[in-house]
């Protein structure tokens, strides 16, 4: 099945080093990613739980590229979320540009694929909202 792609970007009025530090402080993930807690597992693993227990899912990931303060790439390896994701931070006039991109295999087979056109605007808005929450956590330069 063909994966779906989604990305969002936001300007953060802080240098990439500061943005990257907050973005990859997994213990603070819940402060900007709605209903999600995250933690590092071993050298290259991440676990993120999204939802309100017991209603939610575990997103397991392997970090495949780590280039502070510019890039984190992951492979989603969970039962619900599978595919690739990335956070990139680029210098931009007055701060940084943060881009969050996901290329995912949708769960639920043909049903998930059929629902994607309806879910995509909501998912994109939620992603942008989370990035704005991240931006608010990073002290301006």
Describe the structure.
This protein is an alpha+beta fold and 141 residues long. The chain has a single domain, classed as START domain (Alpha-D-Glucose-1,6-Bisphosphate, Chain A, domain 4). Helix content is 26%, strand content 46%. It has two helices and seven strands. It has helices at residues 16-23, 109-137; strands at 4-12, 36-41, 45-52, 55-67, 71-77, 82-92, 95-105. Strands 1-7-6-5-4-3-2 form a seven-stranded antiparallel beta sheet, with helices on one face. A hairpin with a 4-residue loop joins strand 5 (71-77) and strand 6. The longest helix has 29 residues, at 109-137. It is globular. The N and C termini lie far apart (44 Å). The relative contact order is 0.27. The mean pLDDT is 95.
Q: What would a concise description of this structure say?
A:
By secondary structure, this protein is an alpha+beta fold.
Keywords:
single chain, 141 residues, alpha+beta, Alpha-D-Glucose-1,6-Bisphosphate, Chain A, domain 4, seven-stranded antiparallel sheet, 2 helices, 26% helix
List the helices and strands and how they pair.
Elements: E1 4-12, H1 16-23, E2 36-41, E3 45-52, E4 55-67, E5 71-77, E6 82-92, E7 95-105, H2 109-137
Antiparallel strand pairs: 1-7, 2-3, 3-4, 4-5, 5-6, 6-7
Structural class per helix/strand content? alpha+beta
Query: In DSSP terms, counting alpha (H) and pi (I) runs of 4 or more, how many helices?
Result: 2
Average pLDDT reading: 95
Overall radius of gyration: 15 Å
Strand content: over 45%
CATH H level, superfamily name: START domain
The share of residues in helices is 25-40%
Count of folded domains? 1
Shape: globular
Distance between the termini: 44 Å
Strand order within the widest sheet? 1-7-6-5-4-3-2
The poorly predicted ranges are none
How are helices and strands ordered from N to C? EHEEEEEEH
Oligomeric state of the chains present here: single chain
- What is the number of E strands? 7
State the name of the first-level CATH class: Alpha Beta
